[in-house]
Specification:
Elements lengths: L1 H19 L3 H14 L4 H21 L8 H22 L5 H6 L1 E4 L8 H25 L10 H32 L6 H6 L2 E4 L1
Antiparallel strand pairs: 1-2
Keywords: Membrane, Transmembrane, Transmembrane helix
Protein name: RDD domain-containing protein
Subcellular location: Membrane
């Protein structure tokens, strides 16, 4: 009788104890659910980057761009713009840029902390590099050299090499973006991965 009573009491009390002390599997599943709920969709991440870039270009167009079309000046101005928008602003705003604020997420470290200045600088440089290279290529491509000049063959070969490099870079970036979009947030973009930064919902 005592054994039966103990078994019946254990049957009733067991679910309560299991609820108070969930299994490791349950805890891991709950953790995965919480982490997935904090994932920022890749499309939102891309839109935030484009919003920030559009802001840089818009400020250029309504200021110096109204009075000058100098390629070198635009290169310098946009370089400073990248530094301000992608590095200084998130450094001052605790991991947020204008774009991330509009899309309602922030940039965080691996443990959810505010990113260090080194991480933000790496991210800004990773974002700037493709634009900087493509702009520099465009400036070189627009340089006019007389066909009789000794520098003309060098200019032609340099243009071809840069064009091939740019084509490869664009193809790799497009493939990378496609893979990240297909993974739906399970894989981060190269600029965040290089800086060890995790886009996270507020």
């Amino acid at each position: 009788m005592l054994n039966s009573t103990g078994a019946l009491a254990g049957y009733w009390i067991g679910p309560i104890i299991l609820a108070l002390f969930p299994s490791k599997k349950t805890l891991l599943a709950k953790k995965a659910k919480i982490e997935s709920s904090r994932l920022v969709p890749p499309l939102s991440q891309l839109l935030a980057v484009w919003v920030d870039y559009f802001l840089i270009q818009a400020v250029w167009l309504v200021t110096i761009g109204l009075f000058s079309s100098n390629d070198v000046m635009e290169l310098v101005y946009t370089t400073v713009g990248f530094l301000v928008v992608y590095f200084i602003l998130p450094l001052l705003w605790g991991g947020q840029t204008v774009g991330t604020r509009l899309l309602r997420f922030k940039l965080a470290g691996p443990q959810g902390e505010v990113p260090s200045w080194r991480a933000l600088l790496k991210r800004a440089f990773a974002l700037y590099l493709p634009w900087g290279l493509s702009t520099f290529f465009g400036i070189l491509n627009r340089v006019e050299i007389d066909m009789d000049s000794a520098l003309y063959p060098i200019h032609v070969w340099m243009t071809v090499v840069l064009f091939v490099c740019m084509a490869i870079m664009v193809a790799v970036l497009c493939l990378h973006v496609l893979l990240v979009l297909l993974k739906k947030g399970e894989r981060t973009f190269y600029f965040d991965a290089a800086a060890d930064i995790v886009p996270s919902k507020k």
